[in-house]
Specification:
2 copies of one chain form a homodimer. Chain A has 325 residues and is α/β, with parallel strands linked by helices. Chain A contains 13 helices and 7 strands.
Chain lengths: 325, 325
């Protein structure tokens, strides 16, 4: 009885979210973010409605103008009548808000627009990077019918690499005068960007940032039919160049579909997510078998030389036999 | 018949290694490095003899003098009559040797000393960092009776963090004139070093590197009984200051034991390794069920909206029921 009331309520929420109710969208995101007991039900109810949105990841070091760029992109998409859902991942705090509160307020420009939904999410996640629930929150926005789902992350450590794993198209933002712009680029962002944007292009040093970036990208050989990452210049504050970014995003989306890369990327993403959920579930079992921590006992045996790590792994796997099914 | 010959041969190898035969040590490392079918048997045979060595990780950016420092440390340990096993992890190539060949040749100083064993290992490993087989190779050296096992890694990306996870004591090497010395420190090495060494201390800028490092370390509050990381200065080329490093390493080892941290670190390391082995084994099953890739099929169903990631994870876990045991 309770079960059927719950089911009704989740499907009502999904229906309301799909009908454009922001409150229902917010509620669904809270359910996945809080790992509610309804999480599985929500995920199952969303599934048939997902896969339509263009998921865009936007990343860059602090100070390159991510929030201003997000706001400018929202405006440009809205001018074309497209609905935009935004997830702003805040790595600076285990709670939403915090250091980026100023940015969130700035995004308040779009607060009265029903075609825009903005949500801050804590990056309390696994691996120190994106929140565990980010992919589920993306699905909420996708299922709710947003044409574009923008995921904004501060490029620190692994999170920029993770957002590349989650998004269809990854935009890497740079700016002149950031000592670490090109440094960061060298450190690995060259492998993740589909579109590069040099923001604050009206400042000294912007042409050089673009030039160095171009030199580095040209270093990587590309074969016929591969995507060549454009390097665009914007002044997000005034909106200069933003329409070119939108055009590049659309072009990349079209290339993804025609080349078969979209299906490939999404399948890879789903694989990783399914595995992560399965492993997390197993990890819970391994550490909560009866009263004691099974994995702890095995680790102690390995440290003491009474077992070895392969034999201990076998014991873990054998124990699944009695707990699965 | 074959099985018993194999078992005999592995236990012979372990006995020979423990008797000081370098050839047997090298053969055992090759068996674990090549993921030989004998890997499990080797690991099991080593287990009862492990846990005695002091495992020291040595990491730092290219150019700080890691190989020279390793060589100087070997000399200092040898003067005290301690046997030293060295694993030099080469991240620059999927094969051993490569860019660090010059360094390896320099370490040839110790080639005729039976109390020293040096081995280069490829970092072809999982996660782009340390090789999968590094922990097993460490166990070979430990079981073979080396008093000190030194693991030398170039501090690039994750590998410096990984070596911290593997070692009892982690030494972070810095040097003046490396623009990235303190940069790297900021990026995370402050959390991994137990002992900091400013090498090339006879050069301009060395006092400043030590001062900046001290300022950053003092920033972190430590409670009574916690380890306070020393900052030492060396000129590895001449051996100046190296005996102080050895003394600090011994002091840290004593603190690890008396504080209970040693058992804790080693158990955490064993936990992570057991889990990684179990997950790798499951991953192989998930992608090799019968003729088709089960995980691929599930991922496609999620992308198509016919399933969701939680339901797909359940299918994976249920399938274990039929394959485990």
């Amino acid at each position: 009885m309770k079960g059927s009331r719950r089911a009704e309520s989740v499907s009502d929420l999904v229906a309301s979210a799909r009908a454009g109710q922001a409150r229902a969208v917010a509620r669904l995101i809270s359910l996945v973010e809080d790992e509610s007991p309804l999480l599985r039900e929500v995920t199952a109810a969303l599934a048939p409605h997902t896969g339509r949105a263009h998921v865009i990841g936007l990343t860059g070091s602090p100070g390159v103008g991510k929030s201003t760029s997000t706001s400018a992109l929202i405006r440009a998409f809205r001018e074309q009548g497209r609905r935009v859902g935004v997830l702003a991942i805040d790595p600076s705090s285990p709670f939403s808000g915090g250091a980026l509160l100023g940015d969130r307020v700035r995004m308040g420009d779009h607060a009265t627009d029903e075609g825009v939904f903005i949500r801050s999410m804590a990056a309390r996640g696994h691996l120190g990077g994106l929140s565990w629930s980010t992919p589920q929150a993306m699905r909420v926005l996708d299922a709710a019918g947003f044409d574009v789902v923008l995921v904004e992350t501060v490029g620190v450590g692994q999170s920029e690499v993770e957002v590349a794993g989650l998004a269809d198209t990854t935009v890497v933002l740079l700016a002149p005068g950031m000592g670490d712009g090109i440094q960061a680029a060298k450190a690995g962002i060259l492998e993740i960007g589909d579109v590069y944007v040099v923001n604050k292009a009206d400042r000294d040093g912007a042409p050089q940032v673009a030039r160095e970036l171009r030199a580095m990208l040209n270093f990587a050989e590309r074969s016929e039919g591969e995507w060549r990452q454009p390097i665009l210049k914007t002044v997000a504050q005034t909106g200069d160049g933003v329409s070119d970014v939108v055009a590049a995003l659309d072009e990349h989306r079209a290339w993804l579909a025609s080349s078969g890369t979209l299906a490939h990327r999404r399948a890879r993403r789903a694989r990783a997510e399914i595995e992560a959920i399965a492993v997390a579930s197993l990890r819970r079992r391994w550490t909560e078998v009866g009263e004691h921590d099974q994995l702890d006992a095995l680790a102690t045996a390995v440290v003491d030389g009474q077992s070895d790590s392969y034999a201990a792994a076998d014991v873990l796997l054998d124990s699944l036999d009695h707990h699965v099914g």
